[in-house]
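Summary of Year 1 activities. Much of the first year was spent building the evaluation harness for sequence design. The harness presents a backbone, in tokenized form, and records the residue chosen at every position. We chose the following record to illustrate the format because it has been used consistently in internal testing since the harness was completed.
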């Protein structure tokens, strides 16, 4: 059975909890579940999105060990945030300034590579129905794409590389081209299938959200 909705305290109390989670993140051996928990709280409580962005900018500004494990954990969570939520315009300007400053101060570093990735992601992010899956978080931490397997009738299963921003329509178009069906008069769509039902995936649906639902 699917878990029920999470219960939350006041925004102030939840902000304190998130701050404590960020402090814990620095030394966490397996940061992925903690990152997903922070993302889920932000999805459920949108007013906290700007707060977390500001906290992460603070934590990645003049860190005691630039490029160390703790510092990179903050950059990795910032990467996941950028692929899931857009901050308000004032915070977005503040964040972009921070990204530019990092690239200028630490050129060719891991932090600069994350900053570049985050900037590109912010230009594509429109909001998510679900937070990134554990698998998606892992690939985002490496600034990579996920591999999605699509089963096609009458053809072998196809592996497609997708990002956090890839829509069902984009994948369907790629498969139509790959299978040589571009001239076909038929319409094509993706379907998600579970034990109980099969349903079409909306053309604008993000495939990453579909994968999270399966997780």
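For this record, the design step produced the sequence shown next.
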């Amino acid at each position: 059975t699917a878990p029920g909705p999470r219960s939350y305290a006041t925004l102030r109390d939840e902000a304190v909890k998130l701050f404590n989670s960020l402090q814990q993140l620095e030394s966490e051996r397996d940061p992925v579940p903690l990152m997903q928990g922070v993302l889920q709280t932000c999805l459920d409580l949108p007013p906290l999105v700007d707060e977390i962005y500001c906290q992460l900018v603070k934590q990645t500004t003049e860190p005691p060990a630039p490029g160390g494990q703790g510092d990179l954990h903050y950059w990795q969570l910032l990467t996941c945030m950028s692929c899931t939520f857009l901050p308000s315009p004032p915070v977005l300007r503040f964040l972009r300034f921070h990204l530019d400053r990092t690239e200028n101060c630490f050129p060719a570093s891991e932090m600069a590579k994350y900053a570049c990735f985050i900037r590109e992601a912010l230009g594509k992010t429109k909001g998510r129905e679900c937070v990134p899956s554990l698998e998606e978080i892992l690939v985002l931490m490496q600034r990579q794409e996920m591999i999605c397997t699509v089963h096609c009738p009458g053809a072998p299963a196809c592996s497609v590389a997708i990002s956090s921003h890839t829509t069902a329509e984009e994948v369907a178009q790629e498969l139509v081209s790959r299978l040589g069906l571009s001239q076909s008069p038929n319409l094509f769509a993706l379907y998600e299938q579970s034990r109980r039902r099969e349903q079409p995936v909306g053309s604008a649906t993000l495939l990453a959200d579909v994968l999270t639902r399966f997780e």
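The first helix runs from residue 11 to 25. Quantitative recovery figures across the full test set are reported in Table 2.
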